[in-house]
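Record type: ASSEMBLY
Status: queued
Input:
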Amino acid sequence: MRRLWQVLRLLWKAEPWAMWRGAALAVAVLIMGAALLGLSGWFITATGIAGLAGIGIAFDVFRPSAGVRFLALGRAAARYGERLLTHDATLRALARLRVTLLARLERFSMPELRRLRGAAALTRITADVDALDGVVLRLALPVAAALITHGAAFVALWALTSHAVAASVALGYLLGGGVVLWRVGRATLTPSSQAEEAMQTLRQRAIGMFRGRREAILQGALPRWRGALDDTEAEARGAMDRLDAIDTGAGMILAVIVALVTAAVFALAGWLVVDSGLDPARAAIGVFISIALAETLLPLRRGMAEIGRMRDAAERVMADPAPHRLPKRTGPAEPAQPGAALEVRHLSLARPGWTRLLLHDLSFTVMPGEMLAIRGESGAGKSTLFDVLAGLEPATAGEALLLGKPLPDWETVALRDALTLVPQRAALLSGSILENLALADPDLTEDKALTVLRAVALDEAVSARGGLRSQLGEGGAGLSGGQARRLVLARALLRRPAVLLLDEPTEGLDGPTARQVLSGVREFLPEAAIVTASHRAAELDAADRVLTLETYIPKNRYF
Amino acid sequence: MPKQAQGTLRRAALLSALAAALWPLQALALAWGIGGWVTEAAPQASLAAAGAFAVIGIVRAVADRIAARLAFHAADGVIHDLRQALLTREARRPGAAASSAALAAMLTEKLAILGPWITRYRPAMARTKLVPLLILALAFYVSWAVGVIFLVAGPLIPVFMALVGMAAKEASARQMVEIGDMNTLLIDRIAALPDILLLNAGDASRAAFEARAEGLRARTMAVLRVAFLSSTVLELFSAIGVALVAVYVGFSLLGEVNFGTWGTGLTLAEGVFLLLLAPEYFQPLRDLAAAWHDKAAAEAVADELDALEADETTPVLGQGARAEPLAGPASVALHGVSVRRGDQLLALPDLDVAPGESVALSGPSGTGKSTALDLIAGLLTPEEGQVTVAGQALACEIADAWRARVAYVPQSIHVPDMTLRRFLDPHELGADMDAALRKARAEGIVAALPEGLETVLGETGAGVSGGEARRLLLARAFLTGADVILADEPTADLDAANGAAIIDALAALAAEGCTVIVATHDPALSGAMGRIVTIGEGAT
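Status: finished
Output:
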């Protein structure tokens, strides 16, 4: 629950002034609605009495009927204002929530972030932030407005009718409604977690089955996979059914409470009219207001039924990242080779979480302006090696020195200024080409952008698409694979790092273009030490030296 | 929508409408009671009125609940049926265009969007058809003036419904796009977060996100300002209806207005009754307007479902179920076969493979080597011609039994999230793994995995390289006793050691008497096969 409060505070603070005004209008809507029915009831009953007594002429009809008209128009206007203000504030709050989420995710480790790229993980995040959208609009605001309205109704009923009527309404609604809603909130916690869990499992299993269906058909295992999926669906449906039973059950009990409170107030008012001479018109106010106050109670059910879902979403969205600092080490084993940009000494590494070594006793040095190609089969460990060199993963043994300083001694920001890694699956963003490039260099001018695009032989393709301001779709959609690859390279070049690690930089390019791009890269960054992970001829030819990983793969690996 | 769900839903809608129609009775009880206060009826009258009000209220609450549960079951049934149909259809169409993630999204959150449409919109529609008419009739019965007030609003109702419907539909569609955009934007940033961090661009990326979110907010609010206006008009009608009735009734009771009743003048009880009817006259309409969004969202999902169904990719032959291996020789033949590729027919050369023969299919890419393997495995149906396996025509009835004899090593392997043991022995036959792994030259791979045969593979588990996965599949061929081995470019993109291991394993399988058919460019592999068949250029 603590996290849910955190989310509420965060959302409220995004635009507190609009939220407060929205809340005030929400109260005004409820109070004016109750006042409209109460005043109308009083008016009719009072005119009925005056008519019967034959004193109709003396009755002041204008103030009450003006009041009725004012409340009718005022309520509609207040409702419009409330909806506008709260939606506006909520939209701001949603943006804030998402920015906060992004900032929190930035503190996660790289492997965790890479796992988030899967469709299932991303949908879960969106489902979670969507669930949190309701925290203010469906939960906090209606609850607060209902409480304030009941406070006001209590005072008004005490003054206009009798303390007994006021107390009956307040006790009936606040106690009865409060207990029901509280229990709904409690009762739905478990089934809403279960329903959500089962739905996510269903999604994952479905993705698994659709991706692997060829394999499942070949194995004759399709019915079994399907069976597991059907079980998960049954589980999800069961949990949803329990949720709906609780939710509609609560709706029923709330409706019964409204009926009982109104009936009780009615009987009480009737008794007071006969027994202590309460003015029937004033007694009618109590009855009508207790009918009108149903409007405070019934909408709360939805928010309360979602509280379990919101709580779980808040737990995940506001979760703290696992600590992932690389171990600090004291000084390098031997003095650094003077002038080397990157020096690797007796490095051994394994895939994260594995004990089996991928590479053993790897050593090499790259000088500024030099280009080294690392060759190896896919899965041999090139990408893991680059992760280690970029300070994302620890090495199993040995050390790597960047500009003469051991990697673990580098601060993250400084490290990323000195060394840029272009992974195999680098992603672009929706937005213009210029915006994508400007990520790497906030002071980017159009001239600079064109220069770097020329270096990666992308300038013509960009101008053919409509220039730097032409828009890309989600994930950079709209560019071909080779064009996207070159834009990612251009973005990395703008960082002007001392060491550039390129994982299969010319994947998807034909031979001549690949050669052109690689020479453009070297021309653009003549002083940089460049390391590529390659198996293509163009990349191997362009390098000053080639290092074959096969030599460093532990010999007992296969045979 | 299936018949049974349709029936349930009709009952739910009817019950919901009937429950709403109980309100006039409750109003009558209150009106009669309040009337009694003024005419100094017995004190028990109040109690009786209160009792009647409470009892009818409880009946109404219970009926509403039952209606809601019925509607939920109808919705649940509809969604379940659609889900099952989608699963049944798509599971056997590996060639269909929709991505796995898109299908999974349809299966989970998109089909769920149909729920609110069924549970909220349909009952609201039923109430709208019944309740206003009922209240109108009652109002006319008591006072024609109040009836006229309602009636004036009445013809406006369809007009407003249309207006509200149009405005709300457009607004919600646009708003959904905008809200969707905010999430798309977020997903985009999260997916690119590793790269953003490597570029030290966290702050810049968040600032850009904020700027775009602000733009979205401004545009969304412009739409909402209009959308809210239309529902405010509805609320205004409801409030003005109450106010007009209250003022008219008050003036009538005072005797200042002398028209509008059927000659007898209005009593207090009648006045209170009319006042209590007024808000309920407009309520169903307000519910309907609130549920309009659900309808628009459901229609969007229905459109997407139709689009999925329009994909005419044919399913694989057979059910993909486990079967007893087909009897007969391990022979394969393609005669006069052609397959559809877009608008064109691709003709494949005739092929006859005798039991125990090993054949390399070679030729430029795109000429149908992989297609031939898919045809032999029953994953594709030929447009023309005949695929013969084990001496029979390959048809739906025997496809599963035929595949029980086939081991297929595809070029890129989707490794599911399961333990290696389960992967190698899908039907848990408990055969001798060590021997099979040894024959496939794959025992070293298993030894190197962190937990050996119990290592979980796949996206969420440990990765094996492409070459390793192919060798594990060959080990499975030894294990399951398959005697027809199909392999698609098994040595492509591999280093020398991996490639040699695969050629050895395939040769070992051929030596054991298996029929081996490989599609390959690799001269080392084709050389190890008994015969080379060229597909494409130069082939007849």
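Annotation: Chain A touches chain B through 159 residues (CB under 8 Å).
Annotation: The radius of gyration of chain A is 34 Å.
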